[in-house]
Write a structure and sequence with these properties.
This protein is of the alpha/beta class. The chain contains ten helices and seven strands. The longest helix is centred in the middle third of the chain and has 26 residues, at about 100-125.
């Protein structure tokens, strides 16, 4: 991936990993456009980074994605990089859900259907660019699930699979398809910002950017902290890692 001279759209760009990526790419001289549903977070991030732009977007809303895409292409015709980062993570007690699947359905709509819809809507535009990149953000939990966030982990596993298919189908185009696989990073997702077990965002983002500098860029962007999860099955340690993550954890409130 070329790290400069791009126009980059980052969903969920107002906080956490999305904001970290937005600011890192902004500092390299790219035109960065952040999108999300929390207007205040977007405004604060853009104000802290003069020249950064923002657009409102609700990833759960199919119609909003269509209208958003038209606006984004109209306002930023040089758009050539899409980073599908927006996501939600909610604890779920499966035996207590019964007919109320609101959390599960919102998670699927935001984490899986949203990126699929936005990618589909932008593909025709990206195909016309001299070079383009789609980066989908999955998770180490796609490979070893945290069992009290079952639908979140399932959506990230699906994003991993979808990204592999997308990469193969686009292999004859100029669109590069990458997957960013974060470990547990200290963000406000599931209140992890102050958890000492989480990888600090200030360490995660620079390591990601160093990997992106590699030419050719690896198809999967894995910092060292996530490799234990990403390759749990290949290493033969899946069962031990699964039990270590889930066996001693209390159930969600």
């Amino acid at each position: 991936m070329e790290l400069s001279g791009n126009t980059i759209l980052i969903t969920g760009g107002g906080s956490g990993i999305g904001r970290g990526l937005a600011e890192a790419f902004h500092k390299l001289g790219n035109q960065v456009v952040i999108a999300g549903r929390r207007k205040q977070a977007l405004e604060e991030t853009a104000a802290a980074n003069p020249g950064m732009k923002w657009l409102p977007l609700d990833m759960e809303d199919r119609g909003a994605i269509r209208s958003f895409t038209a606006r984004a292409v109209d306002e930023f015709p040089a758009l050539n990089v899409l980073i599908n980062n927006a996501g939600i993570m909610r604890a779920e007690k499966l035996l207590a859900q019964y007919a109320d699947l609101a959390d599960a359905e919102a998670t699927v709509a935001t984490n899986l259907l949203g990126p699929i819809r936005l990618t589909a809507a932008l593909l025709a535009h990206l195909e016309k660019r001299p070079r383009a990149t789609i980066m989908n953000v999955s998770s180490g939990l796609a490979f070893v699930p945290l069992t009290w966030t079952p639908v979140y982990c399932a959506t990230k596993a699906a994003i991993h699979s979808y990204t592999q298919s997308l990469r193969y189908q686009l292999r004859a185009t100029k669109i590069e398809v990458l997957e960013l696989i974060p470990p547990y990073v200290a963000t406000h997702l599931m209140n992890g910002a102050d958890d000492p077990r989480a990888m600090p965002l200030g360490q995660f983002i620079p390591e990601v950017m160093e990997i992106l500098k590699q030419q050719p860029t690896p198809a999967e962007i894995c910092v060292e902290n996530v490799k234990r999860l990403r390759f749990a099955a290949e290493s033969g340690h899946y069962d031990a890692i699964f039990q270590g993550m889930n066996g001693a954890r209390s159930e969600p409130d």
